[in-house]
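Collaborator request log, item 7. Partner lab (contact: R.S.) asked for a structural prediction of Leucine-rich repeat-containing protein 18 to inform their binding assays.
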Amino acid sequence: AKGKAKGPKGKKVTLKVAKNSIKITFDGKRRLDLSKMGITTFPKCILKLADVDELDLSRNMIKKIPDFIEKFQNLRWLDLHSNQIEKLPETIGMLQNLFYLNICNNKLTTKSLPVELSQLKNLRTLNLGLNQIDNLPTTLGALKELQDVGLFDNYLTTIPNSVAKLPKLKKMNVKRNPFPQPTEEELLIDTIKRIEALYLVDEKDLCGPCLKKCQEERDKLNKLKNAVPTSLRKPNFSSLMTPNSTAKDNQAEW
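Returned to partner:
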């Protein structure tokens, strides 16, 4: 065959198909569900449905999110996980009502995350897991409403303080990143940092029961210190490919 090999053609979504894919959520919002449809290109026809509240394009083969995503001004929920997205458009920062954004299991890198993500002031949930991110932008620290952040299965070696200390943060999943392992000395220092109050006295100034209690606590700390493994490294399966997105249909099971 002459010429370059073409990728999968993908399914074409018509406006009729899109209209029939609108569902009403339990709280009365309109969700356009185009997940698991073999789509390779963001359907331009859904611009005529830009007033939907939620958009699900997960588990497709989309590589690019167009600039006109900004037209979906009512969006509060956007699910793009398990595609082949390599870059997010700067206009995504215009979605000021967005409080949920799932873009895990794609091909995003640090450079492909636009600074404009920091403009999503109402964002509460951000899932960036299963990508190729090696450095988290410090500008994400501007997302003061963030409560749940997914950063698992990336190439991160550190988390910026601006993100780690977000005021409303409740959950951050950073599993399976190549973080450097702390030394035993650093582990002990960290333990000391977590003590709220520390009182130093001579043993002779303590009564019998108090001295016994202090000695018991000291013995416990020594046992913990001796129990710290010399190596906490987990096996690294470098040849393992990204899991097949069809392996699990339920996002919670991921």
